[in-house]
Amino acid sequence: MNPQQREQAERESDAADFHTVIPCATKSSIEAQFQDVYTHQKFREVQAQFRGKVNCITRLTNSALGYSVYEVGEQVSSSIFNKFVVTYDSVAAEVKCQCLLFESIGLLCHHALSVLSFEQVSQVSPRYIMERWSKKVKRRHTHIKSSHDEPLMEPRSKRFDQLVFCSQNICEFASELEELTAILHRAYDNVMAEMESLKGKRKGTSSLSHEDANLESVNELQSLPKIRTRGRPKNRLGSKLDKQIANATKKKKTKVLSEINLFDAASVVHSNSSQHQGHVMNYQFRVPAARDNSLGI
Protein backbone atom coordinates (compact mmCIF):
# COMPACT_ATOMS: atom_id res chain seq x y z
CA MET A 1 0.00 0.00 0.00
CA ASN A 2 1.53 3.29 -1.10
CA PRO A 3 1.32 6.49 1.01
CA GLN A 4 -1.63 7.85 -0.99
CA GLN A 5 -3.64 4.68 -0.44
CA ARG A 6 -2.68 4.64 3.22
CA GLU A 7 -3.82 8.22 3.69
CA GLN A 8 -7.10 7.53 1.88
CA ALA A 9 -7.72 4.51 4.12
CA GLU A 10 -7.11 6.63 7.20
CA ARG A 11 -9.53 9.28 5.96
CA GLU A 12 -12.17 6.60 5.53
CA SER A 13 -11.35 5.31 9.01
CA ASP A 14 -11.75 8.82 10.43
CA ALA A 15 -15.16 9.10 8.78
CA ALA A 16 -16.17 5.72 10.22
CA ASP A 17 -15.16 6.90 13.72
CA PHE A 18 -17.74 9.70 13.51
CA HIS A 19 -20.59 7.86 11.80
CA THR A 20 -20.39 4.37 13.30
CA VAL A 21 -20.23 3.02 16.87
CA ILE A 22 -18.51 -0.10 18.18
CA PRO A 23 -20.71 -1.69 20.88
CA CYS A 24 -19.26 -2.03 24.35
CA ALA A 25 -18.04 -5.44 25.47
CA THR A 26 -19.19 -4.91 29.07
CA LYS A 27 -21.73 -2.88 31.04
CA SER A 28 -19.03 -0.64 32.49
CA SER A 29 -19.68 3.09 32.28
CA ILE A 30 -15.90 3.61 32.04
CA GLU A 31 -15.84 1.60 28.83
CA ALA A 32 -18.67 3.76 27.51
CA GLN A 33 -16.56 6.81 28.37
CA PHE A 34 -13.71 5.56 26.20
CA GLN A 35 -16.18 4.53 23.49
CA ASP A 36 -17.42 8.11 23.21
CA VAL A 37 -13.94 9.62 22.91
CA TYR A 38 -11.48 7.20 21.31
CA THR A 39 -11.14 6.15 17.69
CA HIS A 40 -12.32 2.70 16.71
CA GLN A 41 -8.80 1.32 16.49
CA LYS A 42 -7.75 2.52 19.94
CA PHE A 43 -11.10 1.65 21.52
CA ARG A 44 -10.62 -1.98 20.44
CA GLU A 45 -7.37 -2.00 22.42
CA VAL A 46 -9.22 -0.60 25.43
CA GLN A 47 -11.88 -3.31 25.07
CA ALA A 48 -9.18 -5.99 25.20
CA GLN A 49 -8.23 -4.70 28.67
CA PHE A 50 -11.86 -4.73 29.81
CA ARG A 51 -12.21 -8.33 28.68
CA GLY A 52 -9.08 -9.16 30.65
CA LYS A 53 -10.84 -8.19 33.87
CA VAL A 54 -12.63 -11.55 33.76
CA ASN A 55 -9.38 -13.32 34.71
CA CYS A 56 -8.61 -10.99 37.63
CA ILE A 57 -9.33 -11.54 41.32
CA THR A 58 -9.12 -8.33 43.38
CA ARG A 59 -8.38 -8.26 47.13
CA LEU A 60 -8.03 -5.21 49.38
CA THR A 61 -4.93 -5.42 51.55
CA ASN A 62 -4.74 -1.96 53.14
CA SER A 63 -6.75 1.25 53.22
CA ALA A 64 -6.33 4.58 55.01
CA LEU A 65 -7.58 8.14 54.40
CA GLY A 66 -8.88 7.38 50.95
CA TYR A 67 -5.67 5.60 49.90
CA SER A 68 -6.15 1.89 49.21
CA VAL A 69 -3.75 -0.91 48.31
CA TYR A 70 -5.00 -3.90 46.38
CA GLU A 71 -3.57 -7.21 45.34
CA VAL A 72 -4.82 -8.34 41.95
CA GLY A 73 -4.31 -11.94 40.94
CA GLU A 74 -4.44 -12.63 37.20
CA GLN A 75 -5.11 -16.19 36.19
CA VAL A 76 -2.84 -17.11 33.28
CA SER A 77 -3.53 -20.85 33.40
CA SER A 78 -5.62 -23.33 35.34
CA SER A 79 -3.30 -23.27 38.33
CA ILE A 80 -1.03 -20.23 37.86
CA PHE A 81 -1.84 -16.73 39.07
CA ASN A 82 0.30 -13.63 38.58
CA LYS A 83 -0.04 -11.09 41.39
CA PHE A 84 0.12 -7.31 40.90
CA VAL A 85 -0.06 -4.52 43.47
CA VAL A 86 -2.49 -1.75 42.55
CA THR A 87 -2.97 1.49 44.52
CA TYR A 88 -5.96 3.79 44.35
CA ASP A 89 -6.20 7.36 45.67
CA SER A 90 -9.86 8.32 45.89
CA VAL A 91 -9.06 11.96 46.67
CA ALA A 92 -6.84 12.49 43.59
CA ALA A 93 -8.82 9.93 41.54
CA GLU A 94 -5.53 8.25 40.67
CA VAL A 95 -4.85 4.57 40.10
CA LYS A 96 -1.44 2.95 39.64
CA CYS A 97 -0.53 -0.62 38.80
CA GLN A 98 2.70 -2.48 39.28
CA CYS A 99 2.72 -3.60 35.63
CA LEU A 100 3.12 0.07 34.49
CA LEU A 101 1.10 -0.44 31.31
CA PHE A 102 -0.34 3.06 31.41
CA GLU A 103 3.08 4.59 31.99
CA SER A 104 4.39 2.61 29.02
CA ILE A 105 1.74 2.95 26.31
CA GLY A 106 -1.00 5.13 27.84
CA LEU A 107 -3.65 2.40 28.32
CA LEU A 108 -5.21 1.45 31.64
CA CYS A 109 -4.46 -2.21 32.33
CA HIS A 110 -7.08 -4.77 33.29
CA HIS A 111 -5.61 -4.88 36.81
CA ALA A 112 -6.32 -1.17 37.32
CA LEU A 113 -9.74 -1.49 35.68
CA SER A 114 -10.55 -4.33 38.06
CA VAL A 115 -9.72 -2.11 41.05
CA LEU A 116 -11.79 0.77 39.64
CA SER A 117 -14.69 -1.62 39.25
CA PHE A 118 -14.20 -2.79 42.85
CA GLU A 119 -14.23 0.86 44.01
CA GLN A 120 -17.40 1.42 41.94
CA VAL A 121 -15.82 4.30 39.98
CA SER A 122 -18.13 5.39 37.15
CA GLN A 123 -15.81 7.85 35.35
CA VAL A 124 -12.03 8.00 35.12
CA SER A 125 -10.01 11.17 35.44
CA PRO A 126 -9.31 13.05 32.18
CA ARG A 127 -5.59 12.32 32.70
CA TYR A 128 -6.27 8.73 31.60
CA ILE A 129 -7.83 9.80 28.31
CA MET A 130 -5.18 10.66 25.74
CA GLU A 131 -6.23 13.49 23.48
CA ARG A 132 -4.01 12.30 20.64
CA TRP A 133 -6.21 9.19 20.34
CA SER A 134 -9.43 11.16 20.30
CA LYS A 135 -11.56 10.90 17.19
CA LYS A 136 -12.26 14.64 17.44
CA VAL A 137 -8.63 15.51 16.78
CA LYS A 138 -7.68 15.93 13.12
CA ARG A 139 -4.64 13.78 12.58
CA ARG A 140 -1.52 15.13 10.98
CA HIS A 141 -0.30 12.81 8.22
CA THR A 142 3.25 14.16 8.12
CA HIS A 143 4.68 11.50 10.42
CA ILE A 144 2.69 8.75 8.73
CA LYS A 145 3.90 9.76 5.29
CA SER A 146 7.51 10.03 6.33
CA SER A 147 7.47 6.57 7.88
CA HIS A 148 6.18 5.05 4.63
CA ASP A 149 8.16 7.14 2.16
CA GLU A 150 11.41 6.69 4.08
CA PRO A 151 11.73 3.62 6.32
CA LEU A 152 14.50 5.35 8.26
CA MET A 153 11.99 7.90 9.55
CA GLU A 154 9.90 5.29 11.40
CA PRO A 155 12.03 5.37 14.60
CA ARG A 156 11.64 9.14 14.66
CA SER A 157 7.86 8.80 14.56
CA LYS A 158 7.98 6.37 17.49
CA ARG A 159 10.22 8.71 19.48
CA PHE A 160 7.81 11.56 18.74
CA ASP A 161 4.86 9.60 20.17
CA GLN A 162 6.82 8.67 23.29
CA LEU A 163 7.91 12.27 23.88
CA VAL A 164 4.37 13.57 23.46
CA PHE A 165 3.05 11.07 25.96
CA CYS A 166 5.78 11.79 28.53
CA SER A 167 5.55 15.57 28.15
CA GLN A 168 1.78 15.49 28.56
CA ASN A 169 2.08 13.63 31.85
CA ILE A 170 4.76 16.03 33.08
CA CYS A 171 2.72 19.08 32.11
CA GLU A 172 -0.37 17.76 33.82
CA PHE A 173 1.62 17.13 36.99
CA ALA A 174 3.41 20.50 36.89
CA SER A 175 0.25 22.50 36.23
CA GLU A 176 -1.13 21.65 39.67
CA LEU A 177 1.13 24.16 41.46
CA GLU A 178 2.84 27.38 40.44
CA GLU A 179 6.10 26.23 42.00
CA LEU A 180 6.06 23.04 39.95
CA THR A 181 5.36 25.03 36.81
CA ALA A 182 8.38 27.27 37.50
CA ILE A 183 10.58 24.22 38.03
CA LEU A 184 9.43 22.76 34.72
CA HIS A 185 10.11 26.05 32.89
CA ARG A 186 13.66 26.15 34.22
CA ALA A 187 14.16 22.53 33.26
CA TYR A 188 12.85 23.24 29.76
CA ASP A 189 15.25 26.15 29.34
CA ASN A 190 18.25 24.06 30.42
CA VAL A 191 17.26 21.13 28.24
CA MET A 192 16.63 23.33 25.19
CA ALA A 193 20.03 25.02 25.59
CA GLU A 194 21.77 21.65 25.84
CA MET A 195 19.91 20.23 22.83
CA GLU A 196 20.56 23.31 20.68
CA SER A 197 24.27 23.14 21.56
CA LEU A 198 24.49 19.48 20.59
CA LYS A 199 22.46 20.01 17.42
CA GLY A 200 24.61 22.99 16.47
CA LYS A 201 27.80 20.97 16.80
CA ARG A 202 26.46 18.14 14.67
CA LYS A 203 24.99 20.53 12.15
CA GLY A 204 28.29 22.38 11.85
CA THR A 205 30.15 19.16 11.16
CA SER A 206 27.64 17.93 8.62
CA SER A 207 27.35 21.30 6.90
CA LEU A 208 31.16 21.60 6.61
CA SER A 209 31.50 18.24 4.97
CA HIS A 210 28.55 19.02 2.76
CA GLU A 211 30.14 22.33 1.74
CA ASP A 212 33.43 20.62 0.96
CA ALA A 213 31.57 18.10 -1.15
CA ASN A 214 29.84 20.91 -3.03
CA LEU A 215 33.12 22.75 -3.65
CA GLU A 216 34.70 19.55 -4.91
CA SER A 217 31.77 19.00 -7.23
CA VAL A 218 32.05 22.58 -8.52
CA ASN A 219 35.76 22.15 -9.17
CA GLU A 220 35.09 18.96 -11.06
CA LEU A 221 32.50 20.73 -13.18
CA GLN A 222 34.80 23.68 -13.86
CA SER A 223 37.71 21.42 -14.82
CA LEU A 224 35.86 19.59 -17.55
CA PRO A 225 37.89 19.44 -20.81
CA LYS A 226 36.71 21.65 -23.64
CA ILE A 227 35.62 19.69 -26.68
CA ARG A 228 36.00 21.35 -30.04
CA THR A 229 32.89 21.05 -32.14
CA ARG A 230 33.07 20.05 -35.81
CA GLY A 231 30.15 22.07 -37.00
CA ARG A 232 26.84 20.91 -38.31
CA PRO A 233 26.49 17.12 -38.59
CA LYS A 234 26.23 15.75 -42.10
CA ASN A 235 23.24 13.58 -41.42
CA ARG A 236 21.25 16.43 -39.89
CA LEU A 237 17.50 16.42 -40.44
CA GLY A 238 16.64 18.47 -43.52
CA SER A 239 20.10 18.26 -45.11
CA LYS A 240 18.58 16.90 -48.35
CA LEU A 241 16.31 19.91 -48.62
CA ASP A 242 19.24 22.24 -47.94
CA LYS A 243 21.22 20.60 -50.75
CA GLN A 244 18.32 21.05 -53.17
CA ILE A 245 17.98 24.73 -52.24
CA ALA A 246 21.74 25.25 -52.58
CA ASN A 247 21.79 23.58 -56.02
CA ALA A 248 18.82 25.63 -57.22
CA THR A 249 20.47 28.84 -56.03
CA LYS A 250 23.72 27.90 -57.72
CA LYS A 251 21.94 27.17 -61.03
CA LYS A 252 20.06 30.45 -60.80
CA LYS A 253 23.29 32.38 -60.25
CA THR A 254 24.93 30.56 -63.18
CA LYS A 255 22.00 31.41 -65.44
CA VAL A 256 22.07 35.07 -64.44
CA LEU A 257 25.81 35.26 -65.05
CA SER A 258 25.38 33.62 -68.46
CA GLU A 259 22.70 36.12 -69.42
CA ILE A 260 24.91 39.00 -68.29
CA ASN A 261 27.82 37.67 -70.37
CA LEU A 262 25.62 37.25 -73.43
CA PHE A 263 24.31 40.78 -73.03
CA ASP A 264 27.82 42.18 -72.80
CA ALA A 265 28.90 40.23 -75.87
CA ALA A 266 25.93 41.46 -77.85
CA SER A 267 26.66 45.02 -76.88
CA VAL A 268 30.24 44.70 -78.08
CA VAL A 269 29.18 43.21 -81.39
CA HIS A 270 26.61 45.91 -81.93
CA SER A 271 29.14 48.62 -81.17
CA ASN A 272 31.66 47.15 -83.58
CA SER A 273 29.10 46.81 -86.32
CA SER A 274 28.06 50.43 -85.91
CA GLN A 275 31.64 51.62 -86.20
CA HIS A 276 32.19 49.46 -89.28
CA GLN A 277 29.10 50.87 -90.97
CA GLY A 278 30.29 54.42 -90.20
CA HIS A 279 33.58 53.82 -91.93
CA VAL A 280 31.85 52.42 -95.00
CA MET A 281 29.54 55.37 -95.27
CA ASN A 282 32.42 57.75 -94.98
CA TYR A 283 34.26 55.82 -97.59
CA GLN A 284 31.29 55.89 -99.97
CA PHE A 285 30.81 59.62 -99.31
CA ARG A 286 34.39 60.51 -100.15
CA VAL A 287 34.70 58.45 -103.32
CA PRO A 288 32.31 60.62 -105.35
CA ALA A 289 34.17 63.76 -104.21
CA ALA A 290 37.43 62.37 -105.49
CA ARG A 291 35.76 61.31 -108.71
CA ASP A 292 34.33 64.85 -109.29
CA ASN A 293 37.70 66.44 -108.82
CA SER A 294 39.21 64.13 -111.36
CA LEU A 295 36.51 65.04 -113.90
CA GLY A 296 37.09 68.73 -113.43
CA ILE A 297 40.83 68.51 -114.33
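the 2nd protein, sequnce then structure:
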Amino acid sequence: MSYSVDPRRKEKINRYKAPKNQGQSGGANEDMMPDYMNILGMIFSMCGLMMKLKWCAWFALYCSCISFSSSRASDDAKQVLSSFMLSVSAVVMSYLQNPAAMTPPWAS
Protein backbone atom coordinates (compact mmCIF):
# COMPACT_ATOMS: atom_id res chain seq x y z
CA MET A 1 0.00 0.00 0.00
CA SER A 2 2.09 2.80 -1.28
CA TYR A 3 0.53 6.24 -1.59
CA SER A 4 2.00 8.54 -4.18
CA VAL A 5 -0.37 11.38 -3.40
CA ASP A 6 1.08 14.31 -1.47
CA PRO A 7 -1.32 15.17 1.40
CA ARG A 8 -0.09 18.78 1.65
CA ARG A 9 -2.19 21.46 -0.01
CA LYS A 10 -0.18 23.84 -2.15
CA GLU A 11 -2.73 26.67 -1.85
CA LYS A 12 -2.38 26.66 1.98
CA ILE A 13 1.38 27.23 1.96
CA ASN A 14 2.40 30.75 3.03
CA ARG A 15 6.01 31.79 2.68
CA TYR A 16 7.58 33.76 5.52
CA LYS A 17 8.17 37.41 4.72
CA ALA A 18 10.47 39.34 7.04
CA PRO A 19 8.96 42.58 8.33
CA LYS A 20 10.34 45.64 6.64
CA ASN A 21 12.09 48.27 8.74
CA GLN A 22 10.90 51.72 7.70
CA GLY A 23 14.06 53.38 8.97
CA GLN A 24 12.54 54.33 12.29
CA SER A 25 14.84 54.05 15.25
CA GLY A 26 13.41 52.85 18.52
CA GLY A 27 11.41 50.07 16.93
CA ALA A 28 10.13 47.13 18.91
CA ASN A 29 12.79 44.80 17.52
CA GLU A 30 15.78 47.07 18.27
CA ASP A 31 18.25 45.72 20.81
CA MET A 32 18.94 48.26 23.54
CA MET A 33 21.53 46.27 25.49
CA PRO A 34 24.61 48.02 23.97
CA ASP A 35 23.16 51.38 24.95
CA TYR A 36 22.36 50.25 28.49
CA MET A 37 25.84 48.79 28.92
CA ASN A 38 27.36 51.99 27.55
CA ILE A 39 25.49 54.09 30.12
CA LEU A 40 26.33 51.68 32.94
CA GLY A 41 29.98 51.74 31.90
CA MET A 42 30.05 55.53 32.03
CA ILE A 43 28.34 55.63 35.41
CA PHE A 44 30.68 53.07 36.94
CA SER A 45 33.69 54.78 35.36
CA MET A 46 32.77 58.03 37.03
CA CYS A 47 32.19 56.25 40.34
CA GLY A 48 35.57 54.56 40.00
CA LEU A 49 37.31 57.85 39.24
CA MET A 50 35.57 60.03 41.80
CA MET A 51 35.25 57.59 44.69
CA LYS A 52 38.44 55.63 43.97
CA LEU A 53 36.58 52.32 43.95
CA LYS A 54 38.56 49.76 42.00
CA TRP A 55 35.68 47.33 41.63
CA CYS A 56 33.59 50.08 40.00
CA ALA A 57 36.37 50.73 37.52
CA TRP A 58 36.67 47.03 36.66
CA PHE A 59 32.90 46.69 36.29
CA ALA A 60 32.94 49.73 34.01
CA LEU A 61 35.55 48.05 31.83
CA TYR A 62 33.41 44.91 31.74
CA CYS A 63 30.30 46.90 30.71
CA SER A 64 32.26 48.77 28.06
CA CYS A 65 33.55 45.52 26.57
CA ILE A 66 30.00 44.17 26.40
CA SER A 67 28.79 47.38 24.81
CA PHE A 68 31.61 47.34 22.27
CA SER A 69 31.14 43.69 21.37
CA SER A 70 27.38 43.85 20.95
CA SER A 71 27.14 47.17 19.12
CA ARG A 72 26.28 47.24 15.43
CA ALA A 73 28.46 48.66 12.69
CA SER A 74 25.89 51.42 12.15
CA ASP A 75 26.17 52.64 15.76
CA ASP A 76 28.18 55.70 16.68
CA ALA A 77 31.75 54.46 17.16
CA LYS A 78 32.89 57.64 18.93
CA GLN A 79 30.53 57.15 21.83
CA VAL A 80 31.46 53.49 22.31
CA LEU A 81 35.17 54.28 22.06
CA SER A 82 34.93 57.19 24.50
CA SER A 83 33.11 54.98 27.02
CA PHE A 84 35.77 52.30 26.60
CA MET A 85 38.61 54.81 27.05
CA LEU A 86 36.90 56.33 30.09
CA SER A 87 36.65 52.92 31.74
CA VAL A 88 40.29 52.09 30.93
CA SER A 89 41.37 55.42 32.39
CA ALA A 90 39.30 54.72 35.52
CA VAL A 91 41.13 51.43 36.03
CA VAL A 92 44.53 53.00 35.38
CA MET A 93 43.91 56.00 37.62
CA SER A 94 42.54 53.91 40.48
CA TYR A 95 45.70 51.78 40.45
CA LEU A 96 48.00 54.80 40.08
CA GLN A 97 46.44 56.40 43.15
CA ASN A 98 46.58 53.22 45.22
CA PRO A 99 48.71 50.39 43.81
CA ALA A 100 47.61 47.90 46.48
CA ALA A 101 45.59 44.90 45.45
CA MET A 102 41.84 45.31 45.15
CA THR A 103 39.81 44.25 48.15
CA PRO A 104 36.27 42.99 47.56
CA PRO A 105 33.51 45.42 48.61
CA TRP A 106 32.10 42.98 51.15
CA ALA A 107 35.49 42.48 52.89
CA SER A 108 35.95 46.07 54.04
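The longest helix spans residues 77-97. The chain has a mean pLDDT of 85.
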